[in-house]
Amino acid sequence: MTFNRRQFIRTTAAATALFGSVPLLQAKTGKMYRTALIGSGWWGMNLMREALASGQVKAVALCDVDPNPLEVSAEEINDLTGETPKTYRDYRELLDKEDLDIVIIASPDHWHALQGIAALKAGAHVFVEKPTGHTVYESKALRDTAKASGKTVQVGLHRRIGPHHVSGMKFLKSGAVGDIGAVNMFVIGGGGGKESPTRNSPAPDGMDWDLYCGPSPMRPFNRKIHPGGFRNFLDYANGTLGDWGVHWLDQVLWWTDEKYPKRVFSSGGRPIAGPAILNDTEQTSDAPDSQVAVYDFENFTATWEHRKFGASETDKHRIGCYFHGTKGTFHMGWKDGWTFYPSSKNGEIIHEDSQLQEPDGHNIKLLWADFLESIESGNPPVSDIEIGHRATTLSLLGMLSLKLGRSVEWDGATETIIGDAEASKLLTREYRAPWEYPVA
């Protein structure tokens, strides 16, 4: 199938018209959804603002272990709605006391599965940020619980619904790039440099640091972890691959008919940041500052690369995926939209700009509208729990291979590692008492 500029313009216009109408879908019933937010910091409030803007959400409760963002967010909601939500430090108390239709989960990554499962068991629909687990079997437990519950779960993979991602994926699937044999996913950072340790300190007044750590090891409090730095600490998240990587692995899974790779290998470290430090006095982060992961699928190979140093003018694009085909290379990006670079010297470069919500450059409004439409129609949301689980699993398998120091053979149908008992143990992890590892 050929795909020329005129066809591209028609397709883009159709995609824009389609997704411009998405918010209208949520007005079918006019129902107001009693909604709680767990994790009321910067990103959680981005989600809550869009929820409130839909006109179908009543913010009845907020939860956060830190009283500072909890108070600020409650005041903002009062300013926006004229009503003050109840506030909680412990999500278990919130779920026990409140009658909720929807729970938004925007807590640190190591909480996503436990809190998602608890919210589903309390009878709520769930909007959960990616990743869907800190380990593969956490994510699996959340997926299985969601399916058994009959509730709607939307994972925060907003690139599934962004207009340039939708039109770009249609371009990819049209055959315009030819036969695609390799995909390169990447995030390239700035100048880098050695990381000096930061002194440990008491937690902020009123903060429940023990509950913040929850099932994870209880490190000394450090301002590099909270607020906002937890993704670079492997006790609480999985570094850049477990953060950015989930989005771009999902783009690959969206494009291909294959559901999972057969082999995963990863290598990386901290050659610039330096060795990780953790003691009673000070600590650094411990996530890799550079990493490569290779995913061997049946009909193509996908690679992930990130580095937090060495960005320069030689990097035409610094975020996204290159899909390499027999007719050229297609770049799916973020703020730079998408671009097709043809192999033929006489071919035409085709580009579409991004259409993003500011100030954060995402498409949460569209994703939230789709979530409400899914709740009301019973149709699967655009980034349902199975989609989120698969993308999360690939990122976690990359981190598992990195920690293990060798490749793993993956049986995606049974979600098991083949012939490697040591690797299989890393599909789960020990929890700090009294927390118990989740099962569906």
Keywords:
Rossmann fold, 440 residues, 10-stranded mixed β-sheet, single chain, Dihydrodipicolinate Reductase, domain 2, 33% helix, disordered N terminus, 6-stranded parallel β-sheet, alpha/beta, globular, 2 domains
Overall spatial form = globular
Give the full name of the CATH homologous superfamily of the largest domain. Dihydrodipicolinate Reductase, domain 2
How much helical structure, as a percent, in the residues? Answer: 25-40%
Strand arrangement, major sheet: 16-15-14-13-7-12-11-9-17-18
CATH class of the largest domain: Alpha Beta
Distance between the termini: 45 Å
Enumerate the spans where pLDDT stays under 50 for 5 or more consecutive residues.
Answer: 1-27
Rg from Cα = 22 Å
Determine the structural class based on helices, strands and strand pairing: alpha/beta
